[in-house]
Amino acid sequence: MKLQVAMDVLTTEAALTLAGQVAEFVDIIELGTPLVKSEGLAAITAVKEAHPDKIVFADLKTMDAGELEADIAFKAGADLVTILGAADDSTIAGAVKAATAHNKGVVVDLIGVADKVTRAKEVRALGAKFVEMHAGLDEQAQPGYDLNGLLSSGEQARVPFSVAGGVNLKTIGDVQRAGADVAVVGGSIYSADDPGLAAKQLRAAIA
Ligand SMILES: O=C([C@H](O)CO)[C@H](O)[C@H](O)COP(=O)(O)O
C-alpha cells in the first residue's frame, strides 16, 4: 500500500517545507485543495520541481470543465488530479482524455457521494485510475464519525481505491487490511509536532 501525504497548508513555502520533511517516507505528495486555491498552479510546479521522483497529486476536486482543468494541472507538473464523483460522466471522461494525452491519471473523489460502491464501479469504467473513498474535514467533525464506512465501501467496490478521512497511526493498519491501494494522511502528519517523525511512523506501520 502506498502512503500519500495531503498538504492542507496555504502557502507554497509551507508546502515545500512539509514536503521536504516527509518525502523520504511517502510515495505520493498531495497539494490539498486549499493550497491549490490559495497559490494556484505554480504551487504544483514548485513541488514537482523539488520532488521529481515523487507522484505529485493535485487535489483539484473538479466539478466541471474536466478536460480543461486536468490539462492545465498536468501541464503544471501534476501526475494525478482529482475529479469529483458527483460530476457528470462527461466531466470525468474529459479529464481522462487529458490524462491519456499526458500519460498521467485521474482519481475520482467520492466525497459527498451517497452510494460510493456503485459510483466507484461507474467511474472506474470511465477510466479513473482509482477512486478515493473520502470523508472530508467537515464530515469528520460530525459526532460519531469513524472510518469504517469508507473501508466497507472500498472492500465492496472491488476497484482500486484510496482512503482519506482522518487516517492516523491507530487506523492506518485497518486501511491496509481493507485492501486499499493508497492511505491518504493529512492532519495526522501536518499537525504533528514533528511531521517527519509522524510520516516515518506511518510508513513503518504499513511496511
Ligand atoms: O482532501 C482533503 C480535504 O477535503 C481538505 O482538502 C484532505 O486532504 C483529506 O481529507 C486528507 O486529510 P485528513 O482527513 O486530515 O487526513
From TrEMBL:
GO terms for molecular function: 3-dehydro-L-gulonate-6-phosphate decarboxylase activity; hexulose-6-phosphate synthase activity; orotidine-5'-phosphate decarboxylase activity. Residues 2-202 form the Orotidine 5'-phosphate decarboxylase domain. Pfam families: OMPdecase. Pathway: One-carbon metabolism; formaldehyde assimilation via RuMP pathway; D-fructose 6-phosphate from D-ribulose 5-phosphate and formaldehyde: step 1/2. Its EC number is 4.1.2.43. Signal peptide: none annotated. It comes from the Bacteria. SMART domains: OMPdecase. It catalyses: D-ribulose 5-phosphate + formaldehyde = D-arabino-hex-3-ulose 6-phosphate. CDD domains: KGPDC_HPS (cd04726). It is an enzyme of class 4 (lyase). Keywords: Carbohydrate metabolism, Lyase. Gene3D superfamilies: Aldolase class I (3.20.20.70). GO terms for biological process: 'de novo' pyrimidine nucleobase biosynthetic process; L-ascorbic acid catabolic process. Belongs to the HPS/KGPDC family. HPS subfamily. PANTHER family: 3-KETO-L-GULONATE-6-PHOSPHATE DECARBOXYLASE SGBH-RELATED (PTHR35039). This is 3-hexulose-6-phosphate synthase. It comes from Flexivirga endophytica.
